Amino acid sequence: APAPAPAPAPAPATDAAPAAGTPPTGNETQAVTTQPVNDVPPADQQQEGGSLFDMLLPFILIAVIFYFLIIRPQKKQQKEMQERQDSLKEGDKVITAGGLYGIIREVMQDAVRLELAPNVVIKVDKRSIAANISKSGSPENKK
Fold first, then answer.
1. In a domain, 57, yes or no
2. What is the CATH number of the domain that holds 99?
3. 79 shares its domain with 105
4. Which residues span the domain enclosing 133?
5. Neighbours of 129 (CB within 10 A)
6. Pro residues: which segments have biased composition (predicted)?
7. 95 lies in some domain
8. Which of 2, 27, 74, 84 sits at a 20 to 30 Å CA gap from 104?
């Protein structure tokens, strides 16, 4: 019977890490192990319940702020202007947006006939009436 083969010789000490307590000489190689990082779940398993709400929350807040700072005051101003236009009647003293003072002589659907001086009557759009000064007094007294 043949003799058993001798066991392989151990690897030289320069390829392995130094023994505990011995300083490294610089010739040693270090073993590198790679392990998958399991901190982040796969994309198909991520929870998206709060992310959509978190993403939309700033837009919702901006829309609410936009409404209260811009849209609501503008609607209120339009409503007041419409009420002022609807309340115009013959004999009212008004001032136009162009600065013309006059007395309303005729009220039409979208316009008024405004008397600026005796025998000087012009047709003016209701939207150009800036103020009714017969109700509120002269603009100088408002200050």
1. yes
2. 2.30.30
3. no
4. 89-138
5. 23
6. 1-11
7. yes
8. 74
Residues 78, 97, single domain; the answer is no
Show the tokens assigned to 53: 């709400």
Whether the pTM exceeds 0.70: the reply is no
Q: What is the signed CA dihedral for 14, 19, 23, 26, rounded to 10 degrees? A: 20
Taking phi first (over 0 means left), then psi (-120 to 50 degrees means alpha), and beta for anything else, what does residue 77 get?
alpha
Q: Express each pLDDT in 5-55 by its tens digit.
A: 666 666 555 555 556 666 666 666 666 666 665 665 555 555 555 688 888
Domain count, the chain: 2
Cα 66-67-68 angle, rounded to 5 deg: 95
Residue 114's φ and ψ, nearest 5 degrees, are -115, 125
The pLDDT of residue 143 = 39
CA angle 32, 34, 39 (to 5 degrees): 140
Pair of tokens at residue 30: 């270090």
* Torsion, Cα of 61, 64, 70, 75 (10° steps): 170
Q: Are residues 130 and 96 in the same domain?
A: yes
